[in-house]
Amino acid sequence: MPEAEQLGGSLRYAGCKQQTANSKQQTASSKQQTAKSKEQRAKSKEQRAKSKEQRAKSKQQAAKSKQQNVKCEGDGAG
């Protein structure tokens, strides 16, 4: 009987080890997922910054064009 108990204990221990391994694997997977999410958020932030910059440039360009048109009209009147 003690042999069977010993075997049962070993199996339980092995099961426990397996569970721990699975748990560690899950934790690693979660960390990887978190890292990917952070990277994704950083990329999005960068993209938004670029878009904002682009819009600012466009506004500036439009203002310059308007100024140019006003100058041309002013020259024509003279």
From TrEMBL:
<protein>
    <submittedName>
        <fullName>Membrane protein YukC</fullName>
    </submittedName>
</protein>
<feature type="region of interest" description="Disordered">
    <location>
        <begin position="1"/>
        <end position="78"/>
    </location>
</feature>
<feature type="compositionally biased region" description="Low complexity">
    <location>
        <begin position="23"/>
        <end position="35"/>
    </location>
</feature>
<feature type="compositionally biased region" description="Basic and acidic residues">
    <location>
        <begin position="36"/>
        <end position="56"/>
    </location>
</feature>
<feature type="compositionally biased region" description="Low complexity">
    <location>
        <begin position="59"/>
        <end position="68"/>
    </location>
</feature>
